[in-house]
Amino acid sequence: MEIFDKLTSNQFICILEGEAHPWTGYVVIDSIINGKSTGGVRMMPDVTLPELMHMARAMTLKYGFLGIPRGGVKAGIIADPESNPVTKQEILMEFGQKLAPIIQKRIYEPGMDMGIGPEDLSCIWRAAGLKESRRLKPISHARSGYYTSLTVFAAAQAAVEKIGLEFNQCTTALEGFGNVGSSLVTEYAKRGVKVVAVSTINGAVYNSKGFSVEQLLSQYAHYKSQMINHVGGERIDLDELLNLDVDILSPCARGWSITEKNAGRIQAKIIAPGANCAVSPETERILSERGILSVPHFVASCGGALGSTMEFLGCTEEQILHFINNEVKKKIVNLLAIAERTHQLPLDLAEKEALGKFSKMQVVQQGGWKSKAVQVGMGLYKIGILPTQITRRLLPRYLRGRLWSDSILVEDN
């Protein structure tokens, strides 16, 4: 995979080699707050270290944009996730065992990503020696794809409203029909958006009249990445999907789907990505000059980080939906409006916001009674002393304050 930009800061990189089976793994820690970082494990035959380095930076940007005091990290295992289930489990167990020292201390808290489902994640945690308990087992990561789809949807809504389209008359193409894409089609369908193209690792399919979302989900549940062979429609190349004349293009697969090489052929009016680094930085300016509104990747896809945090701390799905639909969407609306008014790229403005807030969080978390009180509260919650009813009631207000504190994305009323 070609990497289109370079990072300018140091990262901690751990390289692992399999013993029972031939596999290579990486852990890339981009940042740490309170000695902790969080990010998914990606299992793919062609995952690369440079890819993971940028994914780890994306996690830092997500937490910075949200104001959540967490470090950014990403891990990858070079192996086939659809191989023999026994072999996969043995690889995951070995991966967890090798990382036990940093997982047990929560220096790295693994989450779900491409090729890693809830059971796979539980296998890693158990192998690392974490005790299974109601609060410490990785249930909060099981729906991260769904929560990511909610902020992608919110980003698409904000962009549609910004350029004056009617949401229920829009068309969309989705690259990638995995944890995020399969949830996103449901959200689009609820608002009447017509899904005319989808893709998996095995190819893409197009239907100008729109697919039945129920059929897409049914075939995905049964056939996974082979679903495109069973949903009907016209088989097309992936490049054709990216170049379709649709209102909303949602890249939800690998990074760098849209680059300088194909930016001139993109016909979508809006890009609302569910994938990290879906658009290369140099390409954002090309798209902007062509009148295409591109929501920054770490903004549109921040829902997994947010939803997993809220779910772990006892919030209901209704609370998470309300927070995303009201607070996060409002911040995206402000981002797009301020970027236009100040003649900045949304990506440049969002990075300034995220990195500025993250730097301040790193300083604040080093001292002060408020940060210490939060850490003590988290510790009491994890061991079961602080009731869920209390965290459920207090957390949305706390996160609302974190989201907007020290923010440059506050519009004057």
Structural class by secondary-structure content: alpha/beta
**What gap, in angstroms, lies between the N and C termini?**
45 Å
Task: Specify the overall morphology.
Answer: globular
- Can you summarize the main beta sheet? 7 strands, mixed
Number of strand segments: 12
Order of helices and strands: EEEHEHHEHHEHEEHEHEEHEHHHHHH
Task: Give a written overview of the molecule.
By secondary structure, the protein is α/β, with parallel strands linked by helices. The protein has 2 domains: 12-142, Rossmann fold (3-Layer(aba) Sandwich); 145-320 and 334-350, Rossmann fold. 47% of the residues lie in helices and 14% in strands. It has helices at residues 49-66, 85-98, 100-104, 118-127, 144-163, 179-190, 213-223, 238-242, 281-289, 297-300, 303-312, 317-341, 346-364, 369-382, 388-404; strands spanning 12-17, 24-29, 37-44, 71-78, 109-111, 171-175, 194-200, 203-206, 234-236, 248-251, 270-271, 293-294. The strands form 2 sheets. A 7-stranded mixed β-sheet has the order 9-8-7-6-10-11-12, with helices on both faces. It has a 5-stranded mixed β-sheet with strand order 1-2-4-3-5. Helix 2 (85-98) crosses helix 4. The longest helix is centred in the last third of the chain and has 25 residues, at 317-341. It is globular.
